[in-house]
Each structure stands twice: as structure tokens, then as C-alpha cells.
Design goal:
This protein is α/β, with parallel strands linked by helices and 338 residues long. Strands 1, 2, 3, 4, 5, 6, 7, 8, 9 and 10 form a ten-stranded mixed beta sheet that branches.
Amino acid sequence: MPGVSVIVPVYQAEKFLSACAESVTNQTFSDWELLLVDDGCTDGSGAICDALAAADSRVRALHQPQNAGVSEARNRGLREARGEYVAFLDADDAFEPQTLEILWNLRAQAGADTAACAHRNLYPGGDTSVELVLPAGVYDRQGILEGIVYPLLGDRLTQPVFNGFIWRYLFSARILRDAAITFEGAYLEDEIFLMEYFCNAQKLAVTEEPLYRYLLNPASATHKYMADFRQVFARFMERKAALAEKYGLAAARPQWRENSNWAGLLIAIGNEYAKGNPKTQAQKRRAVEALCALPEMAEAIRTVIPTGMSRNKQLAAALVRGGHFFLLTQLYRLKNRA
């Protein structure tokens, strides 16, 4: 049994995949297996997976019969993983050479079931920045709830928003297995996964070292127009509500639903005005008005006044609350021209 199973969902990643895999094979920690899950690729990614597996017995190439999305690819990896712990890596990202060694030792020395690290954002222009999970330290059950679970549940408006990136952690395979935690969907799937996992974790060890290199890719799913965002978000809220009830979380964040709906509404508005949306400006405006009129969104708008967001989001929220949808449309037209 390997110490760590590294799961990489692969889709049309031939430009990045070799470097990604090399960041695992070059680890100073050697007790790992690498699962490359080919999610129905039509470029050369599948062949690269096979070549990497042939070159190193610790690498396994798993081929999905057709493209089923990142959640199903990760779930396939979870089903096939043999490791005591699990780490996730995206095909266009990379580990630092000591990532697994540091996380492994950090967890072991603290007697924790989970370890976490900061990551380094790599911007297209060459700039970088470091983003923490939490300040360095060891967090008990209450610290995990206050630092991760409650922010993911309800603190979705005030900056900085806690990001639900799953690739900053070394997860316990036992917890994942015992709680039957899996992924669903292609957007916001990581937030629900993290929430449920950390509702079951008991101790977390954290380092502020940026051990993961995250490429901000303009072509990623989070930057594309999603025609079905309303349905995706509704399912996300349904799953979040189920977790809040199952684990008794609502008392700690009584307005979690309103805050989450406000955050989702602002994302939905940005999505509606995305450049890839083929609708006319008038159609986009009417769609946004319809979104704001949905009972759950109208309740959030009525009961919560967002504060502490970025200037652009603050302005968008003020226009929504005032019903100034024409001005909101013009704001996004100017933004898209920039």
C-alpha cells in the first residue's frame, strides 16, 4: 500500500501533462502512486498517460470510455486509489519538489488526519502571489469548524472569501471511504467535497509554505459561460443544505443561505454577462432581472446588505438592490471591453 495516492484528472492536457507528472515523479518523498485519469481525451493526452505509466510502475493510466467531467474522473481515481492518504493535482498545475514529504511529515508529527499548505498563483503575465489556507498551526475539531467549515457554509461575501480548492490538502483515505465522500458536477464541486470532509476530520496541520503551483488558466471551466448555471447552483445549494442539516451547522451561521444565495447571484450575473453568452444585451438584462426575482434570491436581496466585497462586486450589488438593471448592464459592457 503506497503512502499517498495522487489523483490527476486529465482532459485535453497534452501541453501540460508531462510537466505535471514530472512534478510527482521528482518528489523527494517516494512512497506514492500517481493515477492519471484520462477523461475521454481526443488529443494526445491518453497516449502520454500510457507512456508515463510504462516508464514508472508507480504511475497508472486509467481511461474513461468517454468524457464525463472532472468529478467523475476524480471519483474514478478515488475508487482505484490504494494509498493511505490522497492528494489531488490538476493536469495544468504542479507540486513543488518537497510537497508530499512536507505534508506527510507535518501530518505525522502533529498526529493529524489531514495536512494543508499554501499555494502559489501563477498569472498569465508572469506575476505570482501566495494564498494561505489558514495560518500555520495545528487545528482541532473546533478550529477546523471555525477556520474551514463555517466559512465555506456561510461566509461567502466578505473578503477574503475562503476558496474551496481541494489540491492544497493531504486527505485521509479512511475518512473519505468511511463517510463515502465523492464529487458531483463540474462547478463548485470542490466546496461541497471540502465541507463534508472537514465535517468528519478531527485534526488538521497547516503550513504557510506554498507547495502547490496553480496556473490561472483563462480557458478553464470557471472562465466560460455556463448556460446551465442556474440549475448547477440550485443543486449546489441543495447539497449544502443537506450537509448543514446532517451536521447541525446552521446555528453557527444563521444567514448562511442568504449569504450563499447573494454570492451565487453575483456569480450568476457575471456569468450572464460573460462574453461567451450569445444573448443580446436586452436578453441578458431580462435574464438577470428574472434571476433576482427568484424567491430565494429576492429574500437574500431583501434581508442582507453585502459589505466588505471587492469594489466591482459592491457596485454590482448596490445596483441590484436598487433595481438599476440597465446601469448594471452598462457596467458589464464596459468591463468586457477592458
